[in-house]
Amino acid sequence: MKQKIPLHTRILIGMALGLIFGIVCLQSPALSSFTLDFIKPIGTIFIRGLKMIAVPLVLASLIVGVANIGDISKLSRMGGKTLGIFLVTTALSITIGLAIVSALKPGHKLSEDTRSDLIAEFDANAEGKISFAEKIQSRGPLDPLVNMVPDNIFQATTSNSSMLQVVFFAILIGVALLKVPKESGATVLHFFNGINDLIVKIVQFIMVLAPYGVFALIASLIIEIAGNDPSKVWELLNALLWYIITVVIGFAIMMVLVYPLLIQFFSKIKYLDFFKGMRPAMLLGFSTSSSTATLPVTMERVEKHLGVSPEVSSFVLPLAATINMNGTSLYQGVSAVFIAQAMGLDLPLSAQIMIVLTATLAAVGTAGVPGAGLVMLVVVLEAVGIPAAGIALIMAPERILDMLRTMVNITGDASVSVVVASTEGELDEEFARKHADD
Ligand code: ASP
Known about the structure:
- The chain has helices at about 5-25, 30-50, 55-70, 70-105, 110-135, 145-150, 155, 165-180, 180-205, 210-225, 230-240, 240-265, 270-290, 290-305, 310-325, 325-340, 350-365, 370-385, 400-425, 430-435.
- By secondary structure, the chain is mostly helical.
- Aspartic acid (ASP) binds next to helix 18 and helix 19.
């Protein structure tokens, strides 16, 4: 049955009501703890439901995606094109971030007192992230490559953070399926095709919860961010206002300039239609802060509303959700320079180039889960020689910036899928015009 109110409107209503309800809760400790105990779990169940199917979805859709491409030469062409666009958009987003942060110099606007206050407030928290980053930090130059190859595929599939290993394994199976005689591969292909169909159904079940899930997520987030002392939060956010503005300007440039140009240049889809088609996925990315959790919806939107063929979407999007993170890399570039500015460090051009390189790699290594971008920022800072303890300076707005950068990540992923589909002749533009708004 067709829902009368469109999905994005229902999600927006859930978000708006969650925001209002969260603010009302701040007036009453009893209501706040009721919300955390009994309403927040609805949001947690919703996110867990989406994450629950992330690994099977990536596995099944990439295997089928690669196998359906049909031959190795087409696979190499599409793979090369996809990775090339990932690299270009990632490097571009970091460069845009660096240009804005160098022009606005938000780090110079932070007073000495505020700097010490922020470090005192978040030092312990920063320590945790740094030691976590050190654990995952590569020791040798080729370690990121080594880490892509799972030593036990069953173990890799037990963690959403090992998605890159799952991606590697799935591509390998897909390629092997192209190489074995059709009859021997048929059963396996048929099996994963079936899994794909089941996942689509399960996503529909989970999405029934979406408006209530985002209501619960936003309401509990407001309560958690405000903590015991909401006025302190305002104070901190105010002190970091220039930093927040810098990151947000960067995100806005990606959303209103870079992606529209990309879409317009490579396809005949109007950006407004693209935007309309992707609205529910963008809002979900914002509410869940996870590209991985949003992946099923991103795939559904590009296929059923933008006319990208399942062949392209099932190959490009699982890869994109794992390694293409334009919002994250822009955020990492801005944050690294902001911290250096605030600490009075001068970054020569060579250090800025180093930021572009390491942030590109860091974005690839960032898992599509909440907060992963901040941990990988430590890797960037250490590579450039900025004290990692500086992340204490940017902890206060982390949650909200995570929500925004995830939205940008998802929009970037969808844009790449449209570009690849269009250049491969796998995009139905007429379909997009008719169904973007559904
Ligand atoms: N939360 C982001 C994502 O899932 C990753 C990050 O922390 O930057 O896309």
